[in-house]
Write a structure and sequence with these properties.
Blueprint: E1 2-14, E2 27-39, H1 51-63, E3 68-69, H2 83-97, E4 103-110, E5 116-119
Parallel strand pairs: 1-3
Antiparallel strand pairs: 1-2, 2-4, 4-5
Helix pairs in contact: 1-2
Length: 121
């Protein structure tokens, strides 16, 4: 099995509603994202998933978050814009766009250099 990763980032603000601390206030992060996909196949030249093709799939999904106030995004409506909810959303959106022979493995979201969350099924 090959696990292929793509790392990227976006900058955005949010507030965590009902949080019992400072995070209930408006604040921003430079979010870091790692998307991992997996396959057990290679093409005729020995590539499992072309890195550039993976970027073409992931980038449009991530771009929707960049320089946004996450609480206002319609696709997060009804959910707090936590790292957990962002990771789950990214996982399912990217999963829909992958070729048939490639499966999503996990999505990791960092709010800071110290704290991250991974989502996988």
């Amino acid at each position: 099995m090959y696990i292929i990763a793509y790392r990227t980032h976006f900058s955005a603000s949010h507030r965590v509603q009902d949080y019992p601390g400072k995070c209930k206030n408006l604040h921003g992060h430079n979010w870091k994202i790692k998307v991992e996909v997996k396959t057990d196949q290679q093409d005729e030249i020995g590539i499992s998933v072309d890195f550039k093709e993976l970027k073409k799939i992931v980038h449009p999904v991530i771009e929707k978050f960049d320089h946004q106030y996450l609480n206002d995004l319609p696709f997060l409506e009804g959910a707090n814009p936590t790292a957990e909810n962002i990771a789950e959303y990214l996982y399912h959106e990217i999963e829909k766009k992958l070729p048939e022979n490639v499966q999503i493995h996990q999505v990791v979201v960092w709010e800071t250099d110290k704290y991250s969350i991974a989502y996988r099924e």
